[in-house]
Amino acid sequence: MDRQYAGLTKLALGVLTFNSVLAIYNSWGDASSVSFVLAADAILVLLFLCLRALEQERGGRGRDIRTRAAVWTMTTLLSALFASRVAPLMPPVVGAILWAMAVATAAGGFWAFFLN
């Protein structure tokens, strides 16, 4: 089954790379935008690797909890990263709702990974 999705994974990483190169090219003079794209890509790649490790684990409970903690941390980082870029562009009320949604997503992920 793992082989079945290998081509799809490669295609997704290729699209991510192409999109990131275009984003960096279009915002080359803006260091914060370039660092945002690079940070988001690094977090996404690490997240994919951790999810793959989580799917392949069968027994080891200690490693399982560490991998889940890493997945939760990276998803929370991505939510905060995107909220920090989008919220200033919105009206204040919408920005507050956006941050509330990011916090709710992090709290829901914590509940799902660790408390449930």
Keywords, separated by commas or semicolons:
4 helices, 0% strand, 84% helix, 116 residues, mainly alpha, single chain
- CA radius of gyration: 17 Å
From the spread of the alpha carbons, the general shape counts as: flat
Low-confidence stretches: none
The biggest beta sheet is recorded as: none
| Amount of beta strand | under 5%
Roughly how many Å apart are the termini?
27 Å
Number of domains: 1
**Strand pairing plus helix content: what structural class?**
mainly alpha
Question: How helix-rich are the residues, as a percent range?
Answer: over 70%
Structure notes:
By secondary structure, the chain is mostly helical. The protein has one domain (3-115). The chain is 84% helix and 0% strand. It has four helices and no strands. The protein has helices at residues 6-26, 31-56, 61-86, 92-115. The longest helix has 26 residues, at 31-56. It is flat, with a radius of gyration of 17 Å. The model has no long low-confidence stretch (mean pLDDT 88).
SSE map:
Blueprint: H1 6-26, H2 31-56, H3 61-86, H4 92-115
Short description:
The protein has helices at residues 6-26, 31-56, 61-86, 92-115.
